[in-house]
Amino acid sequence: MVFCSSCGKELPDGAYFCPECGVGTRIGAEAKMGGSWEEVREAFGRMGEELEKAFETAGREIEKAFKTARKEIREATKKESVVCPDCGEKNLGDAKFCYKCGKKLD
User: Fold this and answer.
1) Number of Cβ within a 10 Å radius of residue 6
2) More confident of the two residues 28 and 52
3) CA atoms within 13 A on the CB side of 71
4) For 79, which DSSP code?
5) CA-CA distance, 31 to 41, in Å (whole number)?
6) What is the helix (H) or strand (E) element at residue 72, kind and residue range?
7) Which end of the chain has fewer CB atoms within 10 angstroms, the N or the C?
8) Confidence category of residue 65, pLDDT binned at 50, 70, 90
9) What is the C-alpha separation between 52 and 49, in angstroms, rounded?
10) Residue 35 contacts by C-beta under 8 Å, 6 or more apart in sequence?
């Protein structure tokens, strides 16, 4: 004997839906999916493994991108600094205006 998981009414053999409340049954879901719950579990397991591989690959790529960005930032900041002729403050080598007083740098 099988009963509805929602309303508790006894279900006829082979019911895809509860005749009382309309909730889908397990065998109805299996028929709709074209497979058993075990097949669904296996599919989700495989999907989980594939997602894990994808996240590992993405993590490596992100780490590589951060290393490249750090290297580029270090190289950009190694440029010889420019001293402001007005206030004497040292500025980054590619600055066009002084970050302290706002005057144009030569």
Assistant:
1) 13
2) 52
3) 6
4) S
5) 15
6) helix 37-77
7) N
8) very high
9) 5
10) none
